[in-house]
Amino acid sequence: MSTPDRPRLFVAVELPDAVRDAIYEAAASSRRSLAGFRFSEPEALHLTVAFVGHVDLGDVEAIEQGVASAAAELAPIPTGLTRFGSFPERGKARVLWIGLDDPAGGLVDLAAVVAARLDGFLEPGDRPYHPHITIARARHPAVVPPALLAGVVPRLRLGIDALTLFRSHLGGEAPRYERLGRWNLRARDPEVP
Questions:
Q1: pLDDT digits (tens, 9 = 90+) for 95-108
Q2: Can you spell out the DSSP letters for 21-83?
């Protein structure tokens, strides 16, 4: 749990309201048919780029500078929603997601640049970056019907044009995300929350 002196941070891309609403609507039938999964509310949907984890309060400024540096190096990236998926992909799942297309590898490059700028602060990862928007999580692995994963995802296009540093507050019914700063790609000035 995040504490005042050890905040839990992550770097993400905020989604336009229209995209979040479309994702929420596309998952509507799943919410009714999948017991055991907790679905995200529209305002909580985002594209995670890097999970930082718990940090010392004194490290937050250096992390902000790292995110700003990464944003200044990167151009906006076009992408779009693709399909439903789950982690793990076979057997019982703990996470349901909607994927993003990345034909030119821009999203993978984005994650790599952020990871390089936050070297020493990130939680170690053992999987390659897979661009996706988490729509639900299960406390215990559960079977996901193949028909759900074959469901129709709105073919919306969007542009990735900024990075946001969030602090997550866990506990209660749903996590709450607090924006600490937002940096436009190829710009050094943050947008103040």
A1: 999 999 999 999 99
A2: HHHHHHTHHHHHH-TTEEEPPGGG-EEEEEEEEE--GGGHHHHHHHHHHHHHH---EEEEEEE
